[in-house]
C-alpha cells in the first residue's frame, strides 16, 4: 500500500525514482523488486507504454508442405495502383490499373494478372483467366479486403443457384468448387507468403518502370517478363560446389526448368522406346519433388522469431487494441469474449467486444492490461 501510494503521488515515476523517495522514510525489504512489480502492474503506466502481445509461431500449414499440383492451393493479393496511357486521345488522363498476384502455397510459383479495378467482378474475371491457363485451384487464401469478401459471397451464391441443375452438373460443380478462406483482419503476418510476393514483384517492376506511364502493351510485356523472373528465383540457398549448377526454382514445377534458362538442343533418337521416354520424364518429375522435399522443406522449418510459447489470452481479459496511425492514448479498450485455438491449442485469434461492436483480431494487435481478475 505504501509503495502504491508513493507511486501515485509522484506522478507514476519509475522503479528507481520510486525506491529512492520511499527510502527517505522507510526501508522496505526487497524494495527494488517490489517497486518494479508495482510499476509493471500499474494500468496507467501500461497504457502510456503498452506491450504488444505475441505468441509462438504456428506449424507450417499442410498446403505448404504436401506435394500437389502447382497452383492447387494459392494465396491472392493486389498491388498498385499503376497508370497506363490510352491511345484514344493524347490529352486523355492516364488510366488506373492494378496487378493481381496469385502465388502457389507449396512451390511459390507466381502468376500475375492485370485488372482494371478492385471490384469483385474484376477479380472473378482474373480468376477465370488464371484457371483457364493454370488449371483449377482447390483452395484460395486472402486477406479481408472488401473486394475479396464480395468475391467469396458471389462465388457461394453462384454455387447455390447452380444446385438446382441436374445431378451430373451438381457432381461437376462439387468437384470444381473452390474453398475460399480469409486471414484474421489486420494481421498481414498470417498471409506473409503473398505479402512477400507483392514485395518481390515491386522490387523488379519499379526498378524498370519507375514513374513512367506506359501503354497497355508495354506494361503487359514488362509484367509477364517480371513473372518469368520471379518464377526463376532459387527456392533453396545456392551451393558453393562447382557441380551444383542448377538450383530448384518455381519454374521447374511449371515447365521443368527455370523460365529464364536457355533451352537445351532437341535430341531425337529413332530407336528409343516411348515407354522409356515416359519413364525418363516421370523420373525427372519425381527428382524435382524429391529435391523440393529434401532441401526446400528443411529451410521452412527455420524460425527466426516467435520461438517461445507464452501464456494464452483468456476470456474476460481487458486489452488495448492497437490501431495504425492513432496515438497510444487513443487506442480503444475492449474485452476478450471468444477464443479461436489453433491445432496446437495456442490462441492466436480472438473476438474483442468494445462499447459499440464485436470484431475479430489477432493477438499481435492486442495489449493485455495487467489486471488481476
TrEMBL record:
GO function term, MF aspect, one: nucleic acid binding
PANTHER family per the UniProt record, alphabetical: GAG-LIKE PROTEIN, PHD-TYPE DOMAIN-CONTAINING PROTEIN
Chain segments annotated as transmembrane: none
Protein name: Integrase catalytic domain-containing protein
Domain Integrase catalytic: 63-258
Gene source species: Araneus ventricosus
Source organism superkingdom: Eukaryota
A single BP term in Gene Ontology: DNA integration
InterPro entries, A to Z: DUF5641, Integrase_cat-core, Integrase_H2C2, RNaseH-like_sf, RNaseH_sf
Amino acid at each position: 500500500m505504501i509503495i502504491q501510494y508513493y507511486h501515485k503521488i509522484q506522478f507514476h515515476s519509475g522503479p528507481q525514482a520510486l525506491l529512492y523517495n520511499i527510502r527517505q522514510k522507510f526501508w522496505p525489504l526487497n524494495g527494488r523488486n517490489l517497486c518494479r512489480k508495482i510499476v509493471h502492474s500499474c494500468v496507467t503506466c501500461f497504457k502510456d507504454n503498452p506491450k504488444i502481445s505475441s505468441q509462438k509461431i504456428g506449424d507450417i500449414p499442410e498446403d505448404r508442405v504436401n506435394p500437389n499440383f502447382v497452383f492447387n492451393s494459392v494465396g491472392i493479393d493486389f498491388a498498385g495502383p499503376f497508370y497506363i496511357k490510352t491511345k484514344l486521345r493524347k490529352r486523355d488522363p492516364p488510366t488506373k490499373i492494378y496487378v493481381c498476384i496469385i502465388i502457389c502455397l507449396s512451390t511459390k510459383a507466381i502468376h500475375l494478372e492485370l485488372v482494371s479495378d478492385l471490384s469483385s467482378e474484376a477479380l472473378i474475371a482474373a480468376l477465370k483467366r488464371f484457371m483457364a491457363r493454370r488449371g483449377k485451384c482447390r483452395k484460395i487464401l486472402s486477406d479481408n479486403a472488401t473486394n475479396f469478401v464480395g468475391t467469396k459471397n458471389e462465388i457461394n451464391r453462384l454455387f447455390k443457384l447452380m444446385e438446382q441443375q441436374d445431378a451430373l452438373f451438381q457432381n461437376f460443380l462439387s468437384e470444381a468448387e473452390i474453398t475460399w478462406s480469409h486471414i484474421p483482419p489486420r494481421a498481414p503476418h498470417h498471409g506473409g507468403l503473398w505479402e512477400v510476393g507483392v514485395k518481390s514483384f515491386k522490387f523488379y517492376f519499379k526498378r524498370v518502370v519507375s514513374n513512367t506511364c506506359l501503354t497497355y502493351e508495354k506494361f503487359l510485356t514488362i509484367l509477364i517478363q517480371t513473372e518469368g523472373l520471379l518464377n526463376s528465383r532459387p527456392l533453396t540457398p545456392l551451393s558453393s560446389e562447382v557441380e551444383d549448377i542448377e538450383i530448384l526454382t518455381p519454374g521447374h514445377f511449371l515447365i521443368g526448368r527455370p523460365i529464364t534458362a536457355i533451352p537445351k538442343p532437341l535430341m531425337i533418337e529413332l530407336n528409343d522406346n516411348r515407354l522409356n521416354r515416359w519413364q525418363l520424364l516421370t523420373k525427372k518429375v519425381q527428382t524435382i519433388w524429391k529435391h523440393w522435399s529434401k532441401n526446400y522443406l528443411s529451410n521452412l522449418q527455420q524460425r527466426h522469431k516467435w520461438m517461445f510459447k507464452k501464456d494464452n489470452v483468456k476470456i474476460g481479459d481487458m486489452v488495448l487494441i492497437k490501431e495504425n496511425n492513432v496515438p497510444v492514448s487513443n487506442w480503444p479498450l475492449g474485452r476478450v469474449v471468444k477464443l479461436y485455438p489453433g491445432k496446437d491449442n495456442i490462441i492466436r485469434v480472438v473476438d474483442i467486444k468494445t462499447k459499440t461492436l464485436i470484431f475479430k483480431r489477432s493477438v499481435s494487435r492486442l495489449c493485455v492490461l495487467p489486471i488481476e481478475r
